[in-house]
Amino acid sequence: MIKPNDFKLFKVPKKNSRIEKLTQLIKKTLGEIFLNQDFRDRDGNNLLIFIDEVLLSKDGRIANVFLTNFSKKNNLNEKEFLNLIDNNLIKVKKEFSEKIFLRYTPKLKFRFDHLRKQSFEIDKLIDGLSSSKKLL
User: Fold this and answer.
1) Measured in whole angstroms, how far is the alpha carbon of residue 64 from the centre of its chain?
2) What's the pTM value of the predicted model, to 2 decimals?
3) Which residue ranges form the domains of the chain, and what is each CATH number?
4) Are strands 62-68 and 107-112 parallel, antiparallel or unpaired?
5) What is the Cα–Cα distance from 24 to 17, expressed in whole angstroms?
6) Residue-wise pLDDT tens for the chain (136 aa)?
7) How many Å apart are CA 61 and CA 81, to the nearest integer?
8) Is 100 left (phi over 0), alpha (psi -120 to 50) or beta?
């Protein structure tokens, strides 16, 4: 039983440094791949893809990659964005497996990050409110 004054109560759980290193390696490698690949939307405009976060399983075999797109020109919804990634998935996975040297290449699962998009929209609203206050 943990007592209220026990130091274990305040102990921060230690993260696995190996998993953190692998996460950073995956993030860096995918970032390089997304810069080299030519992603275009339905209108032919270039698409900038940002990697927000990579969550790696404890055994390092599954990597959930959270992606966003902050381009003002491209108003792609989640399905169109993930379809664009899925269309180029074979190229991305092939280049990823060639660049990363691990015993097990993690299985990549791409997800759209809603929180970043919402925070970006909230920042726009706040900027709009602050500029309207200046006019008054």
Assistant:
1) 8
2) 0.70
3) 17-135 (3.30.300.20)
4) parallel
5) 11
6) 556 666 565 565 566 788 889 999 999 999 999 888 877 777 777 777 888 889 999 888 999 999 887 665 556 677 877 888 888 889 989 999 999 888 888 999 998 887 766 776 788 888 887 776 665 5
7) 24
8) beta
